[in-house]
Design a protein that fits this description.
Elements: E1 2-4, E2 7-14, H1 16-33, H2 46-52, H3 54-76, E3 86-91, E4 98-105, E5 119-121, H4 129-142, E6 145-148, E7 159-168, E8 175-182, H5 190-196, E9 204-210, E10 224-238, H6 244-250, H7 256-290, H8 297-317, H9 329-356, H10 363-377, H11 381-390, H12 393-412, E11 415-417
Parallel strand pairs: 5-11
Antiparallel strand pairs: 1-2, 2-4, 3-4, 6-10, 7-8, 7-10, 9-10
Amino acid sequence: MQVEGCKHELEITVPVEDIQRETERVIADLQKKVRLPGFRPGKAPANIIRTRFAGQVRQDVIDNLVPKALTKKFEEDHLNVVSRPSITDLQFNQGEPLKFKAEFEVAPEIELGEYRGIAVTYSEPQVSDEDTAKRVEDIRESRAEYVNIDPRPVEDGDYAVVSLESISGLAEPVRQDEMTIHVGDADTMPAFNEALAGMNPGEEKEVEITYPEDYGQRKLAGKTVRFRMALKVLRRKELPELNDEFARDVGDYQSLEELKEAARKGLLREREQAAQNAAKEQIIDKLVEAHQFAVPTAYVDQQIDAQLDQQARRLAGAGVDPRKLNIDWDKLRDSQKTRAEHDVRATLLLDRVGEREAIHASQEEVDREVQRIARQEREPVAAVRKRLQENGTLNRIASGIRTEKTLNFLFEHATKEAPVE
């Protein structure tokens, strides 16, 4: 019986004869295990077992019969159960049938509407000569060398190598023996620029720095810290010349023109990927909007767990222990619910489209991903495959490939509309 949305409820009765058979089987199992004074192992009479272990016999019979009865009913009614059943109103009296109620959730039945021709805003990305030149210049900057210069007063544009030691403003002092500051640069904090102006290598002074609230290092964010700063050496940046030799140094290019063409193609791939990803997000949103159906709470809870796990991993990666933060986890879970429901709907719909269009991950595609992971982790492919198979990741890899292929299919069949100027 459907209660609401994906929730179902069943009232199940197990006949007396099934209870009797199961009781005899449980008693027979106990006879083999229990040790009673005056009886050889396995030879204790059934009536003594039945009396002395009445409570255990009763519980074992319930524990065995309830899941069997549920599984049988699920199969008879063709129910795709996706949550752990909640058992209530259990009645089990001597000589009477076993009765209970079970509440659970089933996978939703999705009536798939039109999914080809979804309108999305999209235009083919372009790469200008200026874009290409900037990418090549970025490569050039990455290969710059920093050369020591003879001692003189600091000027804008210099790269000052300093040591810093906090004097006040922090609970735990910090010290940095060698920090490079680009003097006069827009990204350099003004207080450093002012303090360094006119200094000579070998000189020391005190400087007070007020860090913004959103500063990257949490221990400095929002703090006003006084440092003792010593200027150690000055350097200048030397950029390599843009020529064919530079291109050969960068990679497998025979000329600067080859490098520029590779840079242009790389930029174009990046922009195409970004533009297509944005269009696919539109497709997902419109697909979800066009299909309204109940979503199992079990699926939503799993999605929220995954989202919170990702957030915790990001915090841990930034050196923050989530357990030490004052977080209202119940409130945080509630705030994730809308997004989680959207993502669950999207996953179910993409799976349904993939099924309709017979889209699958080929063995070759899965093998390529396993090989990529093996190269990344520097482990034998066979060992990686075995581990991924055992922990269920291999199935998730195949599912991810199928989802991406389904999104590609929807993008190919979408109606692309130019953005409004």
